[in-house]
UniProtKB/TrEMBL annotation:
Pfam families: MoCoBD_1 (PF02738), MoCoBD_2 (PF20256). The lineage of its organism: Bacteria, Pseudomonadati, Pseudomonadota, Betaproteobacteria, Burkholderiales. Residues 292-319 are annotated as: Disordered. Residues 184-264 form the Aldehyde oxidase/xanthine dehydrogenase a/b hammerhead domain. It comes from Candidimonas humi. It comes from the Bacteria. This is Molybdopterin cofactor-binding domain-containing protein.
């Protein structure tokens, strides 16, 4: 591989990549082994999204070595940078850009070292196949020169002419690391770990949130053969046994004998949308003037009841003379993560009291902070190591299982304990994606121009991540004899991407007089981050209203969107998706079949994504094909981008058509696949993805941009096929029937 960069000597002033701000030292990112391997450390974790492969591609090109020379290390709190959470489609733009800067600085340091040895200017040093050349002589590779370079220095940003322009790997579809092992079935997931002397743990979950465990004599179970410990702390109870089946059997017996006191705390599910709109709330508002792209945040932090808008009996009057008011009320229910593999964790309390924890958490440092807080452990005596689980997109039960494992391991010092959740534990006790009630009002002139846009959302917060508050968010810590308070989810600040308000601000160029997010607390069901957060519901609602206005005004939905965006990258993905789907020939579609369009720019500053859905309505809604165009800026791994966009679209299809968590007055009621439906393999649509050129823009994430546009496209296609707007998710036959009946009644 030949050299493809120019060198200069001066670092440039500029803003550090996000992940470098808290991890300034070069040796927290890189190490160089004598065998020629480059050790790369990252705080981002592999969840099946391919981030480890993409980071390796970035490092290989910036260091000018082969991809095979890059040795990626799993995230651990004992070594490597603290990059907080792996979430929000931010790994490439945060960790990737930080690693690129670190590798560039490391390469320059080695070049300077070689230049000093040769008595030459650093500009005379070149790289060939990972080896430094000066004055026509091979001076060795990174591993041979490592002893001459001090890596314990703050990373400096290099001037552009120091940055590598080589793209031997970036922009190419490198095979995902671990793919062969996954195909062979030999990939080491956390569930498959085996440690010498291991024991098996199970924790009893209560029958409903806030339930209190009564008196229970545990002596007989403690005496059973193979039982190592039966521990209880308040309403938290667990079993440790020599074999997994023994732990499961004993826990079932204890569950059958347990006596719980509980109270009906939940509103009727059928009235959840109205309940959300009527509760005290904390409000954040924005406004956007005509022709202005500036969004002003107005924070109203005090709880109050909402007295305007639909909660008080209908829409507000039209404010613009001669305008027509279009309005709609939309709803997204609680959605479960429904991880195929229930959460699992390992913990090992050593004889000296120090602890090791293995978890498929999305944030090893955040989990460590909450574990230390909940268990009163000194941070220096606890290490958290990431091991891949079965995949997740959002805050599932991984952190809670880790707490359970550590709590039980303290009963068995000297032996590692494997803690496994059951299917019912995962479906009914891991945090869920929260419900959202939304109302949109648009005033439209006779020329089909939107004169004012108002969007309001009600719902719980979207983040209950560990490590971000003064009390832990770990489930088990809420049920001990002296419990920590059960916390409600919050929304991240809008500048960080928001929560329920994510993508609340439309990308279209029209004035918005009111954009409001009302955070509602008081529901005991745990809500937290789920893939795309509020963007899923908000984009579904926005794009439905855009279609309704366009069709009511006799405008083509694609052209109406193009007329209301000034961003050429937005126009490009819209046009490409429709070209892929044969949009302009859609009038030839068969009866009960429709094409629908959905679009958004994720978080209003991330990836652009447009989706056209081809939907057929039989005895159910069948999504036959999804045509997707996406712009993620610089593409690191094209096949990885396609996989992420496809995966998001398929998951969004499942959410849009089927998924809704059910509850009664006491708690969740569907703890298996028979009662909680998800998309089956036979129902997966065909998916076509086109990646548009990033036009020199920096990379952004691909994990979440397709969720909202896919749901919107399906909803809009359903409207075309049936002539009725269904505003409540999921789009089940029952929801369609209610929508038809509602239109008939009106």
């Amino acid at each position: 591989m030949s050299s493809a960069f120019a060198v200069a000597h001066e670092p440039v002033a500029g803003e550090l990549p996000v992940s470098l701000k808290a991890n300034r030292y070069l040796d927290s990112w890189l190490g160089f082994a004598a065998d020629g391997q480059v050790d790369v450390y990252t705080g981002k974790v592999e969840l099946g999204q391919g981030i480890v492969t993409a980071l390796a591609q970035i490092a290989a090109d910036e260091l000018q070595v082969s991809l095979a020379a890059i040795r990626m290390h799993a995230a651990t709190t004992g070594r490597g940078p603290n990059e907080s959470m792996t979430s929000g489609s931010l790994s490439v733009q945060h960790s990737g850009l930080a690693l690129r800067a670190a590798c560039a600085h490391a390469r320059v340091l080695f070049m300077r070292a070689v230049a000093r040895d040769c008595g030459r200017d650093p500009a005379s040093v070149s790289l060939r196949d990972g080896r430094f050349v000066c004055a026509g002589q091979d001076r060795g590779g990174y591993g041979q020169l490592a002893g001459r370079v001090d890596l314990h220095v703050p990373v400096e940003l290099m001037a552009p002419k120091w940055m590598s322009t080589r793209r031997d790997y970036v922009g190419s579809s490198a095979r995902p690391m671990g793919l062969e092992q996954k195909v062979e079935g030999s990939y080491s997931y956390i569930h498959d770990m085996v440690l010498e002397g291991m024991a098996y743990g199970r924790v009893l979950r209560p029958p409903s949130p806030g339930a209190v465990l009564g008196r229970l004599d545990l002596a007989a179970w403690r005496a059973q053969p193979g039982v190592l410990a039966v521990a209880r702390d308040g309403s938290l109870l667990g079993v440790v046994a020599e074999q997994e089946y023994i732990a499961e059997r004993v826990l079932r017996q204890i569950a059958a004998a347990a006596d719980w006191s509980r109270a009906p705390l939940l509103p009727p599910q059928a009235g959840l949308e109205q309940w959300l709109r009527a509760q005290p709330c904390k409000t954040v508002r924005w406004s956007r003037a005509a022709g202005s792209s500036t969004v002003v945040e107005q924070d109203s932090p005090h709880a109050r009841a909402l007295h305007d808008g639909p909660a008080s009996g209908g829409p507000r009057p039209v404010r613009k003379p001669g305008a027509t008011l279009y309005s709609g009320d939309f709803f997204k229910p609680y959605i479960k993560h429904a991880s195929i593999g229930p959460s699992c964790a390992w913990a090992w309390t050593r004889d000296d009291g120090s602890m090791q924890v293995w978890s498929h958490t999305q944030g090893i440092h955040n989990l460590k902070a909450d574990l230390c807080l909940a268990l009163g452990v000194d941070a220096a005596r606890l290490e958290v190591m990431h091991v891949p689980g079965s995949g997740c997109y959002g805050h599932n039960g991984a952190d809670d299982a880790a707490y359970d494992a550590v709590w039980l391991s303290r009963q068995m010092p000297g032996r590692p304990v494997k803690l496994q959740w059951s299917r019912a534990d995962e479906l009914n006790w891991s945090p869920m994606g929260p419900p959202m009630a939304m109302r949109i009002e648009a005033e439209v002139g006779a020329d089909a121009r939107v004169l004012d846009w108002r969007h309001t959302v009600w719902g719980p917060g979207h983040s209950l991540r560990p490590g971000r508050a003064d009390t832990p968010t770990l489930l088990g810590s809420w049920y001990t004899e002296q419990p920590f308070p059960a916390r409600a989810a919050v929304n991240a600040p809008p500048a960080s991407g928001g929560g329920a308000d994510r993508n609340l601000v439309p990308l279209y160029d029209f004035p918005c007089s009111e954009l409001a997010c009302h955070r509602v607390d008081g529901l005991p069901l745990r809500a937290s981050a789920q893939r795309a957060l509020g963007a899923f519901g908000n984009v579904f609602a926005i794009e439905a209203m855009i279609d309704d206005i366009a069709l009511a005004c006799g405008r083509d939905p694609l052209q109406f969107r193009l007329d209301n965006v000034n961003d050429p990258r937005a126009a490009a993905v819209l046009s490409k998706a429709c070209e892929m789907a044969g949009w302009h020939a859609r009038g030839d579609a068969a009866p009960d079949t429709g094409l629908g369009l959905g679009f958004a720019r994720y978080k209003t500053h991330g990836a652009y994504c447009a989706v056209v859905a081809r939907v057929e309505v039989t005895h159910e809604v069948c999504v036959r094909h999804l045509y997707i165009a996406v712009d993620v800026g610089e593409v690191i791994n094209p096949e990885g981008v396609i996989q992420q966009i496809e995966g998001g679209a398929i998951q969004a299809t499942s959410w849009a058509l089927f998924e809704e968590a059910h509850f009664d007055a006491y708690g969740l009621v569907d703890g298996d696949w028979e009662t909680y439906p998800i998309l089956r393999f036979s129902q997966v649509p065909g998916v076509s993805v086109e990646i548009l050129p990033g036009a020199g823009h920096p990379p952004v994430g691909a994990g979440e941009p397709s969720l909202g546009p896919t749901a919107a496209a399906i909803g809009n296609a359903l409207r075309v096929a049936l002539g009725v707007r269904v505003r409540s998710l999921p789009l089940t036959p029952e929801a369609i029937t209610r929508a038809i009946q509602g239109e008939a009644d009106s």
